[in-house]
Amino acid sequence: MQVPRKTPFKSLRPLPALFLLFCTAGTAWAQGDSLSEARQTQSDIDRAGRLSQERIDELSEEARQMLAEYRSARDRAAGLERYNEQLAAMVASQDEEIASLGEQLANIDTTQQEFVPLMQEMVATLDEFVKRDTPFLPEERRQRVQDLKAMMDRADVTTAEKFRKVMAAYQTEMEYGRTIETYRDELEIDGEARTVRLLRVGRVALLYQTLDGRATGRWSPEAGQWQRVDDYRSAVEKGLSIASEQAPPDLLRLPVTAPEDK
Q1: Helix (H) or strand (E) holding 106
Q2: CA-to-CA separations, 203 to 102, 130, 135, 198, in angstroms, rounded
Q3: 12 CB contacts (<8 Å, ≥6 apart)?
């Protein structure tokens, strides 16, 4: 009987299956590499897209800022233009004022030459008026006139200030005609110096009453002296109370000089 011979390569029969496994694994590895590359490519695209969007956002914000700066600069330019127009108008007005002042300065010597004599005449007229007027507050009023006369000769006082003080003195004299007042003074009564209370009612009446109330009198413009009017004692007392604000205003029955027809 013949024994069959053993084939030495019988153990190599599984090779086709192993080769197929290797091929499948190689294919899988190849597909895995392609997928990784695709994912990486997609990731790169996404990153590039984000960077592009960020750059677009930055450019958009920069454009908005530039637009805002442009509008602000335009508004400032418009404001400056209006301001320059106003300055031009002011400069033109100042030029006119300077020209006017120049003319006034050119004529100031002539103006003073005409104005100073007028003020001197006003002071002289006021002096004469005080001398002829009812003799109330005589020292105060005469001193005011003397001060004006002294001021007119002073070089350190401007013409405008001199005129202001002259007009103030005239205003004070005008106020005397619209007010009532009382003050104390000394008068010679019956040959004796007596302290009295004087009552001035505008410029229409100037009366006195001794402190004890026993003597009452008035200034008589016609006679140019003081006269006793004891019958008006109560009326004068009432007037003194009103002038010193110790009684409310009221009608007074006082002796006054009637105006004369001329």
Answers
A1: helix 15-132
A2: 47, 12, 10, 13
A3: none
Q: Are strands 192-201 and 180-189 parallel, antiparallel or unpaired?
A: antiparallel
Q: What is the dihedral of CA 135, 137, 140, 141, to 10 degrees?
A: -40
Q: What is the pLDDT of residues 35-87, one digit of tens each?
A: 777 778 878 787 887 887 888 878 888 888 888 888 888 888 888 888 888 88
Q: CA distances (Å), 195 to each of 44, 54, 87, 144, in order?
A: 121, 106, 69, 24
159/114 Cα distance (integer angstroms): 11
**Rg of the chain over all Cα atoms, to the nearest angstrom:** 59
- Is 30 a residue whose pLDDT tops 60? no
* CA-CA-CA-CA torsion sign (223, 224, 230, 232): positive
